[in-house]
Amino acid sequence: MEGVDHLADERNKAEFNVDDMKIIWAGSRHAFDVSNRISRFVATDPVFEKSNRALMTRKELFKNTLKKSVYAWKIIKELRLSDEEGIKLRIFMDQPGFLDLHWGMFVPAIKGQGTEEQQQKWLSLANKMQIIGCYAQTELGHGSNVQGLETTATFDPKTDQFIMHSPTQTSSKWWPGGLGKVSTHAVVYARLITNGKDHGVHGFIVQLRSLDDHSPLPGITIGDIGMKFGNGAYNSMDNGFLMFNQFRIPRDQMLMRLSKVTREGKYIASDVPRQLVYGTMVSVRQTIVSKASDALARAVCIATRYSAVRRQFGSENGGIETQVIDYKTQQNRLFPLLASAYAFRFVGEWLKWLYTDVTQRLEASDFVTLPEAHACTAGLKSMTTSATSDGIEECRKLCGGHGYLWCSGLPELFAVYVPACTYEGDNVVLQLQVARFLMKTVSQLGSGKAPAGTTAYMGRAQHLLQCRSGVQKAEDWLNPSMVLEAFESRALRMAITCAKNLSKFENQEQGFSELLADLVEAAIAHCQLIVVSKFIAKIEGEIEGKGVKKQLKNLCYIYALHLLHKHLGDFLSTNSVTPEQASLASHQLRSLYSQVRPNAVALVDAFDYTDHYLGSVLGRYDGNVYPKLFEEALKDPLNDSVVPDGYHEYIRPLIKQNFPSAKL
Ligand SMILES: CCCCC/C=C\C/C=C\C/C=C\C=C\C(=O)SCCNC(=O)CCNC(=O)[C@H](O)C(C)(C)COP(=O)(O)OP(=O)(O)OC[C@H]1O[C@@H](n2cnc3c(N)ncnc32)[C@H](O)[C@@H]1OP(=O)(O)O
Ligand SMILES: Cc1cc2nc3c(=O)[nH]c(=O)nc-3n(C[C@H](O)[C@H](O)[C@H](O)COP(=O)(O)OP(=O)(O)OC[C@H]3O[C@@H](n4cnc5c(N)ncnc54)[C@H](O)[C@@H]3O)c2cc1C
């Protein structure tokens, strides 16, 4: 029934103040106000309608993305929205497009790697969108291995120019978002060559298309790489290819904050670490962690509301059937994902702090925390995006058959989200970076250099290698120090086992290659420890609002104990817990599920998502699922006529067994 809240009973059961939880979820009252206002603005503007995009052709979808993007920019300008409001507008618009790459990578690359003069020149154009930029790093032949890129930028001292060239087919740029059809400029990563010497990969600002008629400049071949996974979804983005044929740019278009080429062609490397050329990726990986919590929260919101609406079995004497959310199996699959969404939110907040801190240090030429910032952004990007992709798919299954309908919102969410496991660094490749960092830290134990930050626990190696968990009863698993000790001991013991196995090889690189799978598992254990420890730090801090802290505590322990359950092999094989303690953890988990159950719908209401943003019939705020499923079905073009096109051509001849031209 229209106007009726079918989930009202669920909402009445909540034991905490949802409005207070909304502030915690958003990060602050101000952040909540901005999100709330902008999401409602987008939801009510017809230009941002998105329910029809699965049926659009690629060309229609692309044009629709241009329309929405330019309209969003007009609104940002006319209403003088702040940067924060502009970002929210793009998020709630919910359609990948060139704006993401222009603002998310092109502008940050110039800010991070351009000199002051370069910033003044290029940012004044980019900030007004008089030029549109993308981030062109990946090539057909190399994405993960950045040092393997083949595009060359050869300095020509006669003309004071760089000659950009794609020497092979595999050196074609391939994948950059916004490149295929929209961008006028790109930050291109290429091997810098001066006086015949290769100085490795550097960034260059390159104009690609005419600012008058948008045609590619002579010497440039450019286009879209074609359809990607799913309908609609990421196909709104013009991921592109690009080849240079001896294309010339002025010398001052090399991004020269980190290293320079003089008029004479002399290469001057600064004394900062060369890895700062990867700085834009580090910054985006950090934002991807918060985005993971957002994507997982969307899926969980849909699955939770629908699980409360959906009823199957359990009816006695013709009475009402059981809500599927009351099945323990449903809770065991759903509530850890709900807990993960909150966990990723808080670790994302912490990572933002860490990133701000390292940025300030870098500005003061303090590079000490750079390796840790790289390891944390890489590892947490990897861990949270993998868990979120799996989680969205699990939410689809939690919604049964209807989850497979496009209008559930889950297929498109999955299709848009899943490349996050690949872009900004393949998730396995990134965990191997964490593993290298851990092996280095372990090798320095006992050298007098105490591990700091997220590896500080390794400084207590003597204790953590010997200790036995003190858990004796199920409630002990609600003791933060007992939970932390189990995770620390598991992570440390896995890292030390890897280090010991590595030391058996004469050639360390060969050993590393042999042990890749174990190293990835050790890295994941370390990352899970970070997430658990940041969640615990959150619930131990000040939290306002009636009943809010209690709910967050429940979610925190669900997050930790479900990981313990899922990775029990690690915990048992490292003797971090005994089988009896593991079974006490399962007992405690069941009790926590019962405590979360009456609060589940309110906990997803706290995400404050509009029905427009959710884009899901199953996840509607009012729970009015069945009539709306019918409405959606009737909108399908196949239902435009009762007798379908093709009846006379195929169905009728078939059932009449009358095939005029067929030789049977
Ligand atoms: C609404 C707003 C939207 C905004 C956008 C938000 C989200 C994104 C949305 C959509 C996606 C859109 C765009 C996607 C873009 C892209 O995908 S861009 C391309 C991304 N490419 C990658 O991520 C490539 C991954 N590969 C690498 O990063 C490197 O090749 C790798 C780190 C794997 C190896 O590098 P290499 O130079 O070969 O290093 P070594 O393994 O030899 O290590 C040498 C030392 O350097 C340290 N190190 C490596 N990377 C960094 C770093 N970034 N920072 C600091 N330090 C680093 C490494 O740890 C080694 O240290 P030690 O010598 O061991 O001490
Ligand atoms: C939707 C999307 C948008 C993108 N946008 C951009 C963009 O805007 N700009 C841009 O420059 N790029 C972009 N990319 C490219 C992206 O960054 C790369 O695809 C990504 O870095 C992975 O590199 P790859 O494709 O070379 O994978 P590969 O490295 O070829 O990975 C293939 C397999 O090999 C494994 N593997 C590779 N190396 C190792 C190793 N050392 N040890 C163990 N296993 C290994 C991987 O785990 C994976 O299973 C985008 C990609 C996608 C999908």
TrEMBL record:
It comes from the Eukaryota. The keyword Metal-binding does not apply. It is found in: Peroxisome. GO terms for molecular function: oxidoreductase activity. Keywords: FAD, Fatty acid metabolism, Flavoprotein, Lipid metabolism, Oxidoreductase, Peroxisome. Residues 479-656 form the Acyl-CoA oxidase C-terminal domain. GO terms for cellular component: peroxisome. GO terms for biological process: fatty acid metabolic process. Residues 278-439 form the Acyl-CoA oxidase C-alpha1 domain. The active site is at residue 424. Residues 17-132 form the Acyl-coenzyme A oxidase N-terminal domain. Its cofactor is FAD. InterPro entries: ACOX_C_alpha1, Acyl-CoA_ox_N, Acyl-CoA_Oxase/DH_mid-dom_sf, Acyl-CoA_oxidase, Acyl-CoA_oxidase_C, AcylCo_DH-like_C, AcylCoA_DH/ox_N_sf, AcylCoA_DH/oxidase_NM_dom_sf. Transmembrane segments: none annotated. FAD binds at residues 138, 177. Its main location: other. Pfam families: ACOX, ACOX_C_alpha1, Acyl-CoA_ox_N. The keyword Oxidoreductase applies. Belongs to the acyl-CoA oxidase family. This is Acyl-coenzyme A oxidase.
